[in-house]
Specification:
binds alpha-D-glucose-1-phosphate-6-vanadate; alpha/beta; TATA-Binding Protein; binds cobalt (II) ion; 544 residues
Length: 544
């Protein structure tokens, strides 16, 4: 028996998981007991049998290996029977979800701050996923937070660091630690879901692509799947080596942080399709030659066409989208006669719907799309579904988009982010908005008249749990909409997100510039929320 050591500790303030786990500066996580308190709190509340399996992996960012070693020792002291850890400490978020499901693990620790930058001065994060492979639901994250507020000890054992770079099994007392290939199972799953033969044929016939892994976790996955298994030319995957600081960039696949890819796709010598993923591999950016696809449109277009992929043929149970995501998917659901669900922001809200078989595809405006194959959003999965659809139909991204809008109409859509604003000012802004809601219906801003103004609240149709204050919605009589909410993933000050949307019917203006189409909503947003007045900002930092 290895001796279990009990280390006394005291609670830290602010260990509440946000939209997607606990995210803080690396410096915060480096404080003695900080990560340990949180991990012990997870182990104290997690549902598991003695000897249970725990999956551990991360996006390879700075501090990943340190926390993994500590988590393994703590798992040994906390009665786990087996830890599965990705080689090099690597597991993309969707791959971790798959490993949990495939091995019937009791849960997993995903060490990532996703799209946030990495490095000694940047961000780190810990997320707990439950046995269905998905992010812990709110009841669990609340219990974890409550535990962090009263914790007085954490358990560990004395043991050497595990060699994370060599596949195979080692033992720490009763615990077996298996270092597993992080890519193989995931790549096999993708090959089961999609028609790789059809994609290979299209590639052989000249289909070209660029995939920007942003020096984050998807590099090894993308090289194996796109270059090795599908036959795309060597060099199709760029920035394919995971780096602890992501090369100093934000691994956030949007038009600002993946600007090189965007510029290439808008140029004369662009490949047919460009794609990128984020730090932990759960987001996707899709750009066709000369045509950017908003994530909201991507969800709708994939939902309308996914029957072309073997795993989804004739089985679209329903579609779910987060509330701020555009209603483009709703029109597809309506046309196909399947239900559409509107959930709060964050993938944890899709888990019950997927488990209950109520939906097959889910998506968020923040570049997240996924299906019931795992319980996380999945960047490469979305890219492969696009490739499968293009190969099966023999059309381009631009043609598919035009065809879609000509059938369903187009939801012009943008998100304006005001980053790093003063937290107190952001709270005053949101409180002002909330207080002003009852007076808004009937009021006009330019040509827009408010029809409904409310604070979004969600009742889970499966377990009846209620989540309140999930964003302020201003719905106008012409069908356009503004949503305001504060980010739950940032680590500095506050980030205000303003989501703007306007629908044009199939006979309307389908190929206009988004900013121009949303000018009235943009002006109304400032008038209603007093963004300038409260934050001093005259323009957003990021528009996606
Ligand atoms: C953001 C996105 C949200 C996403 C979350 C986690 O949250 O808006 O849609 O689920 O990030 O994505 P927030 O609270 O900052 O708006 V990831 O790729 O960081 O795991
Ligand atoms: Co992510």
């Amino acid at each position: 028996m290895t001796q279990i050591l009990t280390v006394p500790t005291r609670p830290f303030e602010g260990q509440a998981p946000g939209t997607s786990g606990l995210r803080k500066k690396v410096k915060v996580f480096q404080q003695p007991n900080y990560a340990e308190n949180f991990i012990q709190s997870v182990f104290d509340v997690a549902e598991r049998e003695p000897g249970a399996i725990l999956v551990i992996g991360g996006d390879g960012r700075f501090h990943n290996r340190t926390v993994i070693q500590q988590a393994i020792r703590m798992a040994a002291a906390n009665g786990y029977g087996r830890v599965l850890v990705g080689q090099g400490g690597i597991l993309s978020t969707p791959a971790a979800s798959h490993v949990i499901r495939k091995n019937k693990a009791s849960g997993g620790l995903v060490l990532s701050a996703s799209h946030n930058p990495g490095g000694p001065e940047e961000d780190f994060g810990i997320k707990y996923n439950i046995a269905n492979g998905g992010p812990a639901p709110e009841a669990v994250t609340r219990a974890i937070h409550a535990r962090t507020q009263e914790i007085d000890r954490w358990l560990t054992v004395e043991a050497e660091d595990v060699d994370l770079d060599t596949p195979g099994e080692t033992r720490i007392g009763e615990l077996i630690v298996a270092v597993i290939d992080p890519v193989a199972d995931y790549a096999d799953l993708m090959e089961e879901l999609f028609d790789f033969a059809a994609i290979r044929k299209a590639v052989a016939g000249g289909l070209t692509m660029r995939f920007d892994a942003m020096n984050a976790v998807t590099g090894p996955y993308a090289v194996e799947i796109l270059e090795n298994r599908l036959g795309f030319a060597k060099g199709t995957v760029v920035n394919g080596t995971p780096l602890e600081d992501f090369g100093g960039h934000h691994p956030d696949p949007n038009l600002i942080h993946a600007k090189d890819l965007y510029d290439l796709m808008m140029s004369e010598n662009s490949p047919d399709i460009g794609a990128a993923s984020d730090g932990d591999g759960d987001r996707n950016l899709i750009i066709g030659r000369g045509r950017f696809i908003t994530p909201s449109d991507s969800l709708a277009m994939l939902a309308a066409n996914m029957g072309g992929a073997p795993a989804y043929k004739g089985r679209l149970a329903g579609i779910a989208r987060s509330m701020p995501t555009s209603a483009a998917a709703d029109r597809v659901a309506e046309a196909l006669g399947v239900p559409c669900f509107e959930t709060p922001t964050g993938w944890k809200f899709f888990g019950n719907l997927l488990d209950a078989g109520k939906v097959t595809i889910c998506g968020e405006e923040s570049a997240g799309t996924g299906s019931d194959h795992v319980r996380e959003k999945d960047g490469l999965w979305a890219v492969l579904l696009w490739l499968n659809v293009l190969a099966a139909r023999g059309i381009s991204v631009d043609q598919l988009a035009r065809e879609h809008w000509a059938r369903f109409g187009r939801n012009y859509y943008a998100r304006h982010d005001y980053e790093g604003i003063d937290k107190a000012a952001a709270d005053v802004l949101m409180a002002g908005l909330t207080d002003g809601l009852p007076a808004l219906p009937g009021k006009s801003f330019g040509r827009l008249t408010v029809r409904v103004a409310d604070s979004f609240s969600y009742t889970d149709p499966v377990d009846g749990s209620v989540s309140e204050n999930q964003g302020i919605r201003i719905l106008f009589e012409d069908g356009s909409r503004i949503v305001f909410r504060l980010s739950g993933t940032g680590t500095q000050g506050a980030t205000l997100r303003v989501y703007l949307e306007r629908y044009e019917s199939a006979g309307g203006l389908l190929d206009e510039e988004t900013g121009a189409m949303l000018a009235e909503q943009i002006a109304a947003a400032d008038e209603i929320a007093g963004i300038r007045r409260h934050t001093g900002r005259t323009a957003p930092d990021v528009i996606t």
